[in-house]
Amino acid sequence: MAGDTHALEEGSAFALDFGKLAKVAACGQPLVPVAVQDAGTGEVMIIAYVNKLALDHTIKTGHATFWSTSRNELWEKGATSGDVLQIVEIRVNCEQNSLLYRVRRLGKGACHTKDASGRTRNSCFYRTLKNGSLVPSA
Hints:
Elements: H1 5-10, H2 20-26, E1 32-38, E2 44-50, H3 52-61, E3 65-68, E4 73-76, E5 85-92, E6 99-105, E7 127-130, E8 133-136
Parallel strand pairs: 1-6
Antiparallel strand pairs: 1-2, 3-4, 5-6, 7-8
């Protein structure tokens, strides 16, 4: 399944990327994880990473901004898709090693993938693990 993005994003095979944190570390940026939550519904939308530049940009613009570990560059969510995530609140965990962005959607969704009808998904967590396979979440 490695290299097959469509099968990974749309398929039913359960194939976690246990090497993700090693890839994050290899990008050469000092990063912390950030969970992104819809401030209205409580739905978790994305898990991403921020460095100081991304956090400063988020605070300055009021829009969720991350560090893309795959492209190794600043990534303002919605800059190209229009699916901007407006910051409502930034929370910091007890050990100050992760963040929670509580956001309001200004676009159609949050995920870069689309559902069968072509709509942007609200969240990147659109499948549920059942009996060893992934099925669409209710």
